[in-house]
Amino acid sequence: MTSKWTSRDIPSQHGRTLIVTGTGGLGFECALALARAGGDVIIAGRNPANGAEAVGRIRHAVPDAAVAFEALDLASLASIAAFGARMAARRESIDLLINNAGVMTPPRRETTRDGFELQLGVNHLGHFALTAHLMPLLARGRDPRVVALSSIAARQGAMDFEDLQAEHAYRPMPAYARSKLACLMFAFELQRRSDRHGWGVASLAAHPGIARTQLLHKGPGRRSLAGLTRSWLWFLFQPAAQGAWPSLFAATSPDALKGGYYGPDRLSETRGHPARAMAPPAALDAEAASRLWEVSSALTGVSPGESLTAPVARYPGLAPRRRQA
Fold it and tell me: Does pTM top 0.85 for this prediction?
């Protein structure tokens, strides 16, 4: 593994179909770098105006870029299913899915359209369902990879199955840490199941360290302590383009190992060049990861790979929630 890897080291992505969730921050930087490498890039996000702006910026920087926006609301299972159906109708295969988009520390407990706690619902459950809908296309891809975006906050995460969605005790940062731990556990479990069932899809995870994105401004808000820290102490945060390097390394490098976890290499993984990241012990609990998979499948009504192998068992009493009329 090159110790000073950057986005300039991305191998050619010509002929590959690449999906990145999120229109700004790390998602935009991943899409831009992949477009520069010649990939056919689909930016999937909730806001069409932001998506059009991202596409315009990429085409300005890379005039011959193959890049398009597709509407996807990770807080809506119906939107995720519709996105998957459109991709199945338009594409023969998908070679890369970067599950990047996220929500961070809203001050009050909010829910998705299906009644899930917002951070768990968007960061983990939404991407779990998205991966499930796209797995048939990924299984037909060339060197197909799924990359999950975790966070150094996952080190403080705890998978409390008795209150998974913080219905009884919501605290913004612990809920965020749990959602990012879930992303990491899902990445590892997806690799285990891909190996077991022969799906041929590599699953990896990455985290950006501490990067200058808009998550803190959009989550707790610009006037919160975290938001003010992001605004006034911006120099403590590495540029978003650099924060995207671990995701891009996991997504494209021939040196990235399936089932691997990558993050910055300096200052306790807060900044630097991509390197193997230290997974928290909770993320390595295979039994808990398997349980999380089954619970996630029951909540979302889908399971990655279920169309490729026999359907997984469902936990009773955990049918997908729907918003009350």
Answer: yes
